[in-house]
Amino acid sequence: MDIDAWVWWLIGAVGLGIPLVLTAMPEFGMFAVGAVAAAVTAALGAGVVAQVLVFVIVSVALIAVVRPIANRHRSQRPQHRTGIEALKGRTAVVLERVDGAGGRIKLAGEIWSARTLDAHTTFEPGQQVDVVDIDGATAVVM
Predict the structure, then answer these.
(1) Quick one: pLDDT band at residue 10, thresholds 50, 70, 90?
(2) DSSP letter assigned to residue 78
(3) Distance in angstroms (rounded) separating the CA atoms of residues 100 and 140
(4) How far apart are CA 85 and CA 137, in angstroms?
(5) What is the pTM (predicted TM-score) of this model?
(6) Residue 44 DSSP one-character state
(7) How far apart are CA 109 and CA 127, in angstroms?
């Protein structure tokens, strides 16, 4: 039984796809795509040298282009802040007098206990304040 070269390239692509799934290393996927490109080249009747060149060129090109983009996306911070981080920097309305010892504010539709960042500052009901931090269940405002 004589197997065509393109079948061997597809077997190689599947073989490279297995470690991609098991290790989550995208480089294996890029090599697998290179092997599929070589299989197409073999199916079109090109020689072994052309198949290997297509495999190398496609694999290296994908690694050279895709890897830096993936690294850049991985190092970026998420665009959407959630939880406590989403509350920092928001504006709240004072419901009960807020000073260094405590008070109440309405923040994001909920009533929060609050205290001022500076112990000597006070805010009266109706004033707007900025949330600078969340300390446990207390908003620190200024």
Answers:
(1) very high
(2) P
(3) 9
(4) 13
(5) 0.54
(6) T
(7) 16
